[in-house]
Design goal:
37% of the residues lie in helices and 29% in strands. By secondary structure, it is of the alpha+beta class. It has a five-stranded mixed β-sheet with strand order 1-2-3-4-5, sandwiched between helices.
Length: 126
């Protein structure tokens, strides 16, 4: 007889699934020639899952993992987008060009089969 799943067990499973999804996305970007700068960068305003370098610019990436791409994208809220922007501004303050750095905000979706879908400039119209 197996023990019932507890909330902490489910949370641990979600945490590890998130780590695996972020690793898969980081591998996708590095295979396309982008340099990984940070994983799970945490500032005062929140966390940015991945920060990649694109030449002199940066890509801030939010990774969302769920059973389907549709469910994953539904998990992005306006509040979360505002936190990502605030965290990115905080990170840019540490960079030589500051807010003049070229940036892009991507969302990387990972479905239950481990497939990825990248939405570049995802918040351009947010």
């Amino acid at each position: 007889m197996t023990a019932p799943k507890t909330r902490s067990h489910a949370g641990a499973m979600a945490y590890h699934a998130g780590l695996a999804a972020e690793g898969r996305v980081a591998q996708d970007y590095t295979s396309r020639g982008f340099e990984l700068v940070h994983e799970r960068w945490r500032g005062k305003g929140g966390e940015i899952d991945l920060i990649m370098r694109d030449g002199d610019g940066l890509i801030f990436i939010e990774v969302k993992q769920s059973r389907s791409f549709e469910r994953a994208v539904q998990r992005i809220s306006r509040t979360q987008v505002r936190r990502i922007y605030a965290s990115a501004q905080e990170y840019l303050a540490t960079q030589p060009r500051g807010s003049l750095t070229d940036v892009r905000f991507d969302v990387a979706l990972v479905n239950g089969r481990g497939e990825t879908q990248i939405i570049e400039n995802a918040y351009a119209y947010a």
